[in-house]
Amino acid sequence: MGAPVRPVRAADVPCLTALLDQLGYPNEPDAVARRLASILEAPAKQILVAVPDDDSRIDGYISVERRLPLEQDELVEITGLVVDSAVRRSGVGRTLVNAAEQWALRQGLRTVVVRSNVVRPESHPFYEGIGYERKKTSHIYRKELRPG
């Protein structure tokens, strides 16, 4: 079902940068490469990519992290899911989520959570359609700190 999935590689930076841009997160390739290098060194984090059989491009990626909040048992959180606009609604997203769930199980974890922004209403029925239940709605607040 769906495209082949493999772990991300440093050489994938140009494709990842283009996918981030499609989602409205423009980045410089150097910045993506720097962050990716840190992620590749972190055993509690994983990025998986969906590729065609010839591995000539990336059709989408999913990023996951092990999380241990104080208030509940350890779980896996999907921290990013992007599917190229040219292949959306083809099963790539479902394939990536399934691969992330399998990663969670290999980590010995049985709970996966995902946050879905209210400005992306098309993603809500996607997650509900693959068995995720809405647990709460919240706001995210951000503050940029200045040293000194």
TrEMBL record:
Its EC number is 2.3.-.-. It is an enzyme of class 2 (transferase). GO terms for molecular function: acyltransferase activity. InterPro entries: Acyl_CoA_acyltransferase, Bact_Acetyltransf, GNAT_dom. Residues 3-148 form the N-acetyltransferase domain. CDD domains: NAT_SF. It holds the Pfam family Acetyltransf_1. PROSITE patterns: GNAT (PS51186). Keywords: Acyltransferase, Transferase. SUPFAM superfamilies: Acyl-CoA N-acyltransferases (Nat). This is GNAT family N-acetyltransferase.
